[in-house]
Amino acid sequence: MTELLKVDGLATYFKTESGVVKAVDGISYHVREKEIVGLVGESGCGKSVSQLSIMQLISSPGEIVGGEVIFEGMDLLKYKANGPQMRSVRGAKIAMIFQEPMTSLNPVLTIGQQLTEMLDLHLHMNREMARERAIELLGIVGIPSGENRIDDYPHHFSGGMRQRVMIAMGLSCNPRMLIADEPTTALDVTTQAQLLELMKDMVDKFQASLVIVTHNLGVVARYAQRIYIMYAGRIVESGTTKDIFGDPLHPYTIGLLKCIPRLDEEEGRKLVPIEGLPPNLINMPSTCAFLPRCSYKTDRCYREPWPPLIHVHDEHYISCYVNTKEKISEPKTK
Amino acid sequence: MNQKQNDAILDIEDLKMYFPVTRGLLRHKVADVKAVDGVTLKLKTGETLGLVGESGCGKTTVGRCVLRLYQPTAGQILFQGEDISSYPEKRLRAIRSKIALIFQDPYSSLDPRQSAGNIVGEPLKIHQWVGSKAEYNERVEHLFSLVGLDPSMTDRFPHEFSGGQRQRIGVARALACDPSLIICDEPISALDVSIQAQIINLLEELQEGLQGLSYLFIAHDLSVVRHISDRVAVMYLGRVVEITKSRELYDNPLHPYTKALLSAIPIADPFVEESRERIILKGEVPSPLNPPPGCSFHPRCFMAIPECSQVVPPLREISDGHQVACIRV
User: Fold this and answer.
1) Which chain A residue has the Cα nearest residue B52?
2) Are A262 and A216 spatial neighbours (Cβ–Cβ below 8 Å)?
3) Above 0.85 for ipTM, yes or no?
4) What are phi and psi of A158, to 5 degrees?
5) Alpha-carbon distance A79 to nearest alpha carbon in chain B (angstroms)
6) Cα distance from B278 to chain A (closest Cα, Å)?
7) Contacts of B285 in chain A (CB under 8 A)
8) CATH 3.40.50.300 placement within chain A
9) Closest Cα partner for B15 from B32, B37, B35?
10) Three-class SS of residue A301?
């Protein structure tokens, strides 16, 4: 499969009064055609900022300070953020579904007005055609009797329904890639499952790629083909879903998997929390940001800078000096 | 009373909590929101009972009724053998030192203008739990170290703490007057993944350390609830649809809603996920203002038969400690 998106060394900094926040600090990844990729990390690790950077939706004091975003052979960062070229990509070729369905729809416009805006803007449809297409889209995402609901306002819809509208908006211009930023976090469990299935079916149907940004390891285990684990603005481990879950190598990934309760766990399993806190992204040291919380650290970690991604095998990369495999067998680990 | 104490610390019998919907200038009642509609639960001393369900199922309302923050419409709440459901306001204060609450949001549940020590110590003052200033300080410092906070931090203010530390303050406050029951209302859902485990472990360790501490653990995340609880009650639209030991819950769920809820939660393991059965429910939770007749789950149920819309299924004991409210089981 060919690469649809290739991000190389993307860096987004926020210049604040107390210092420079390196929210995204040189991440490289790629998304292939028709692939579902998971981007996993805790809050503040830069996963959302990285996706907003790709869409050039970073506002002051944030600034994209480096890197390339190659989409269909063109570097998106060469385009002006508000220029016509970027606008023809944003929403049309790369669409985004935001986290909060409650707040990301405009409360004073009808669902129809919001859905047809994109069709008018990108596909230059006339009113009747756009309206027809909008009704069709509502049907596709599972909102029954779209012709009656299209003139409703967002407050008439429940959270799950609003997120369906968001998905319909995302799909309206047949995008090549869909970025779902914590798409189901604010929703109930059964609604979550409905919407994730819907998104998966949609990318199958529209032959698009999907990037799921989430903190929920279960969601990516179920849906993603490949996973990137982010910590403090960088990617610390990447690989196929089976690599990440079957053979996690980075201490942070190992820690994450040990600290979440599992539905199918044995009775009496004790969770092993990752001690300490995620780092403050202002004035970070040049050494590995996970170092203070790491249970595998060696002297080398203190001496040398944060390592780049090292190739392990096939598609599995980690950013760590320590061979956690050897360490696991030692009794030193608690 | 002592006999009962050993048996059940909390015995909720057919609890109903209806909220009136009023309309017009005279605010006459037009309908009831049946937030809790006949819940019967029993919590043993030293046990953790999990209460799961989706938003609007009434799980928080049950917790608030137990604390008597609401006056229940009907039903009994026996706490240590005494029915507190009709206690007058005056007598409630004594109860509230015995039943504590841990809130969901560690950011909004701590007064930003009080020092952490004051927040933790306030219940001690209100319930006149300590005699002297020295005793008070000692108790506050003890509580701090109990929840894994440095006792020298009592003079700091909430904004100086991280989310996980704030939740520890919330736990310390709940523990202040040596409660026998703590109601944990979504205590970890506002925290980061790697911090959640710290709080779960803290709650587990406290229960091991303090004899006879019981938890009513309310949450929507079934994997967390299953991890911490001895028994789990699943709620749907104001009713309990299944109660079972947490081990049985995953191995042998009986109610179709429980099955759907379980299958909706992805397990962080692609090898397990491959072979899991997925039940995707249709539609959404109906409004409790106008619940469907009969079993309130039947419009979404994949096992429903016509009879389901006619009878409200009672909770039946299927096997030892496993109760289900479904006529198809």
Assistant:
1) A189
2) no
3) no
4) -80, 170
5) 36
6) 9
7) 188, 190
8) 1-90+177-182+207-263+270-278+307-334
9) B37
10) helix
**CA of B186 vs chain A CAs: smallest distance (Å):** 14
Q: Which CATH number fits domain B2-98+179-324: 1.10.8.50, 2.60.40.2700, 3.40.50.300, 3.40.50.150?
A: 3.40.50.300
- DSSP E strand stretches across chain B: 8-23, 28-44, 48-52, 74-79, 82-83, 99-102, 181-185, 214-219, 231-236, 239-245, 316-319, 322-324
Q: Is the pLDDT of residue B25 over 60?
A: yes
pLDDT of B167 > 90? The answer is: yes
The pLDDT value given to residue B283: 80
Find chain B residues with C-beta within 8 A of A189's C-beta. Answer: 54, 220-222, 261, 264-265
Residues A105-149: tens digit of each pLDDT: 999 999 999 999 989 989 999 999 999 999 999 988 888 888 889
Q: Report CB contact under 8 Å: B197, A278.
A: no
Q: What pTM value is reported for the model?
A: 0.87
Query: What architecture does CATH give domain A1-90+177-182+207-263+270-278+307-334?
Result: 3-Layer(aba) Sandwich (3.40)
| Residue ranges of domains in chain B | 2-98+179-324
Closest of A296, A301, A306, A292 to residue A327, by C-alpha: A296
